[in-house]
Design brief:
Blueprint (H helix, E strand, L loop, with lengths): L3 H55 L2 H10 L1 H4 L22 H7 L1 H4 L16
Length: 125
């Protein structure tokens, strides 16, 4: 009836069909993922465009001038004077480190002996 070669060929044909189906299914799943990622990217780009438009609207000089005039008294705003502007060369050469601050004013940061200000949030019990 069936020979061994017939059974082997049928098994190869069934496994080839299963492999083809699995490959097709994986390709369709990856294509759906790719389309979802593209849609997400498009949505993020649209969000960025809206935020940039909002930012340009909020930072218009005329609007900022009006706000500064409205809130001048509350914020104690004053025009910038010439002596407040410095050159880049006047800035410190190295960035400020916490050790520099501690060495300049140690009495402010020193706790009482036997207390641990770090764990208590700076409040002695």
């Amino acid at each position: 009836m069936f020979r061994t070669t017939d059974i082997v060929l049928i098994a190869v044909m069934v496994s080839a069909a299963a492999f083809t189906y699995k490959t097709k299914h994986d390709a369709e799943r990856q294509l759906a993922e790719l389309n979802q990622i593209r849609a997400d990217i498009r949505a993020e780009q649209d969000t960025i465009d809206v935020l940039e438009a909002d930012w340009s609207l909020l930072t218009q000089p005329r609007r900022l001038q009006q706000l500064s005039e409205i809130y001048r008294d509350e914020l104690a705003l004053e025009p910038v004077e010439a002596h407040q502007i410095i050159e880049i060369s006047d800035l410190p050469a190295a960035p400020l480190r916490i050790e520099d601050i501690l060495s300049e004013q140690p009495e402010i940061f020193a706790g009482e002996p036997g207390t641990d200000n770090i764990e208590t949030g700076g409040i002695d019990q």
